[in-house]
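for the writeup, i need someone to sanity check this before i put it in the appendix. the sequnce is what the collaborator sent (i think, or maybe the updated version? ugh). structure was predicted straight from it, no edits. if anything looks off just tell me and ill rerun, i have time this weekend
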Amino acid sequence: MLTRAQDAAADATVGLGQRIIQLVWRRRDEAGRTELERVVDEAADEQDKSYTAAVLGRLLRRALQEDAELCAELSAMLPAPVAGSVNVTASGERSIAAQHIGTAITGDGHTAPQL
């Protein structure tokens, strides 16, 4: 069941990403489409996911700065947050996450501060 939930979440994320790229594509001129295609192709071939995210993020940020209507359209595509809901995620060794956090210590050889 957990695997199916993770797969569904991944599919939803990929689907949203594809719709965002398609929307940006439709709003670009020929030169902009050529650049978008080049950047997306390079990002798809990149093994470093953080680099890929950074490259695509810069492209999207620039597109949003240049086109206020695109910004409004993309905002409408995103799910509205549910009032009062909080989504906190932590990933990786010794990762921590919280809505509110006081003292957080990770790593070896550390002790809590004396108050």
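Residues 90 and 97 are 5 Å apart (CA to CA). The longest helix spans residues 2-26.
thx in advance!!
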